[in-house]
Known about the structure:
Number of helices: 4
Number of domains: 1
CATH class: Alpha Beta
CATH architecture: Roll
Number of strands: 7
Radius of gyration: 17 Å
Amino acid sequence: MLSILLAVAAQTSSGRLPPAVALPPPVGEEQTVLASVNAVLSSFSAGDSATMLRWVYPDGRVTATGTRASSKGLRQESWAQFAARVTPGAGFEETISDPAIEIDGDAAMVWAPFVVRVGGKVSNCGVDHFDLVRENGTWKVMNLTFSSRIDGCPAQ
């Protein structure tokens, strides 16, 4: 027991959390929430700001934080401002994995590691946190907050 406590203490003192336990695949309403998030990510990859704005609240926020060279510190903008920077054909692709999805009534959140590739090469990675609101039966993203780094990203 002592060795387990020492191992946990060593990991905690390093600033890293222990590895997360994989979650089961989303089912039911979780799939619907995730479908909205995936639609937003697909619009990023397509460079389609008009489609993206159909899945978000334009006055919601996109907040970036992290160590990525081009976005050190904290950067915030509305979805409308973010959409103005979305460029078709830029070779941008963001994928998420192992999403954690929580739903309470008409509020939901998705927390998932992501990897961004530009022209097929890993550009950066981190964790996305989407918060969503269901309005008239449709889940829309209110806010996206994400960390971003260039070190320690998955190669594939």
